[in-house]
Target: Cation:proton antiporter
Amino acid sequence: MIFESWHLSQHTLVVVCLAAILLAAFFMTRLTKKLHLPNVTGYILAGVFIGPCMLSLIPQAAIDNMDFVTDIALSFIAFSVGKYLRWDNLKKNGSHVLIITLFEALVAAAVVTVTMIAVFRLPVSFALLLGAIASATAPASTIMTLRQYHAKGQFVDILLAVVALDDVVALVAFSACAAVAQGLAGEGFSLATVLEPILLNFAAIGLGGLLGYALHKVIDANHTKDTRLMVAVAMILVVTGFCSALDLSPLLACMALGAVYINAGKQQEIFSQVDTFAVPVLAIFFVLSGMRLDLTALSSAGVIGIAYFLVRILGKYAGCFAGAALSRAPKAVRNFMGMGLIPQAGVAIGLALLAQRILPPETGGLLSTIILSSSVLYEMIGPACAKGSLFLAHVIPRAEKTGPAGLPPPPRQPRKARAPHHGHKFALGAKR
Model:
């Protein structure tokens, strides 16, 4: 911990650590770009490199005091997702989105639950809670990858809507499984256990929607870009603070903020401004995620952790494939969208901490270790898999000449055949 040896003041230490984080992110992305990997992967690897697992450049106290960055970064990401929840897009792709979301979330949950019970003979309460957590998808890595490669089209619209609604399904599934687990543990069924997290999240969603409409009413074309950005960031932070006070993830509420705003006014300029403003915040967030990854947890999770990691991927892909086939979604959605649903981090880790309180200490600790250790791998491979899905679905613009690691670049369009050359026969002024 080189910075601690300098005996810096707390204020100076924070400033120096932030500078080190951003510089590490920049230099690592120079390397990952040569490997054709998304920037998010570079940010996470930078965090692993300068974090406690390797160089320990950043003191643990500084890492612990930056928890607020996580909530703010997720809020910016969720607000940007709201842009893709326009009513006209949902009306066009609504059946695809709803069916795919239910299938990819619930099939993953079911496959994980059955595997834990049938193969490893683990308690039903443990298997149910782990399965419910498996249904959650982390939107941050996928969305950052989409933004980096400027991917657009129906494939992207459906993917973003599925990622946005995925956490709603995970929340409801976890609440129901938590009630069943408590009943199996002899604590009895409690309606409050099921309804409390759902009602709190709906309250946060309602606040986000109200502030989204207020944002539409407050800012207009007469305001400067700086004023619009300032008000938008203030609204996002209000929602984030409300969720933080209730110990909730700000994802759903900030999605509602962005969705109501875009549907009320159809103005997209503010989203571009917020995206530009949020770039360094998001870089810090992903580097911090890398620094928090405990690589030693990978070995302690054992065979059960490896099985969870693989079975959840299988469940996500199979559920997405089945949902897309049932809803008659485009072939690219059916075949490749499951690759974009692999990442898992923030929401899953939060639910794991809740599950740890419900389960006995031994099984609760095992569940938490499985989720934390698998998140290491999911966040490592997730961005590359998301890019792979975009590449295979042919939604990356032609300007992107290189494919993801291990894949060739997109095929070039054949050139038009040139007219046969006849010397100077048709030169200017020549007679035929």
